[in-house]
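Q: We require from you a single protein entry containing the residue sequence and its fold in token form, and nothing else.
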Amino acid sequence: MTDERAVAGVLLAAGDSDRFGERDKLLATLDGEPLVRRAARTLVDAEVGPVAAVVGPESSGVRDVLAGLDLAVVANPDAAAGQATSVRRGVAWARDRADAVAFALGDMPRVDPGTVDRLVAAYRAGRGSALAAGYDGQRGNPVLFDGHHFDALAAVEGDRGGRGVFGSADDAAVVETGDPGVRADVDTPADLAALRE
């Protein structure tokens, strides 16, 4: 018997790019494609669904570059208050659509869709109710949470996302993926330059 629990994908793409400079880092390009679109395609191309991107109130450019992808766009007017507000919006959107949600970050353009599939497979195999993608023994992103964590995720505050919920789950696990992309985020122009090498 196979486990067919539905896993939604949520891309957190409402950050303020403070450390990147004047422009929105999510619109910077890697291999000719905006970072946020590459990150969104990771979820769209993985074995999850439905998929949504949570975007900030001033992010018409992000909306534009996501056009044409098979995903919903969820507005987060409170994005300036921290990542937790986007997690809450993503949970509210996913709650009636799936049994679990895989959160990915809009500034992590090198995650392979197969990595998300490994998380989903580990979840369906009973490895845990809170699972993080890992590489070389270190925890990274995306992170998958079973629905019984939705209330706790909806109560998270500040800019820490679901880290505290993951840390308090008694069956949390890191799933080794072999994918260095799970540790490669873009916070500064130097980070982007390193990914382009």
The chain has a mean pLDDT of 88. The chain has one domain: 7-196.
